[in-house]
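anyone seen this seq b4? input:
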Amino acid sequence: MPLTREEKESLLESYRESVVASPHVFLIKAQGITVPQITDLRDKVRDSGGQYVVVKNRIALRAIEGAALGGLKEHFVGPTAIAYGDDPVSIAKTLTEFSKQVPTFEFKGGLVDGQPITAQQVSEIADLPSREQLLAKLLYLMQSPVSGFVRALAAIPRDFVLVLDQIRQSKEQSKENASA
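predicted toks r here
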């Protein structure tokens, strides 16, 4: 059933507000994937903080004119789906895991931080540590010198007390030796 003019304009505006406005976009060949698989993928992408939508190529091409995504217009051939969101690493990981389960799943390309990427680079992005892992490493690196400094400061009184205890023990031993 063909779309009405109002539905097409609504889709065009929807694409402009969501897909074109997103800094991280992955283009996918949406052929040979069953409806239950697409539903499962949509849920997984949503859980990773993104969105997954199968687009109408003609309407999508009109939406991306003049935008950074416009440089990828040659990929809007055949059934095309788009995954987009704020965290490119988690979305790329989700898509890569899904591609291992479904052999017909294929990347066309994408856009990360406004820069075009190839289909091969999507798997490289998926191999990067997640944002949470990077923040944990950064926190550890920032905390490491401070905790070392605190341990060094705590060692001074502890060592001083140990030296005083050894002096006490040696005086007690010398008193015992003198009295014997």
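The beta strands are 24-29, 50-55, 80-85, 106-112, 115-117. The radius of gyration is 30 Å. kinda curious what u guys think
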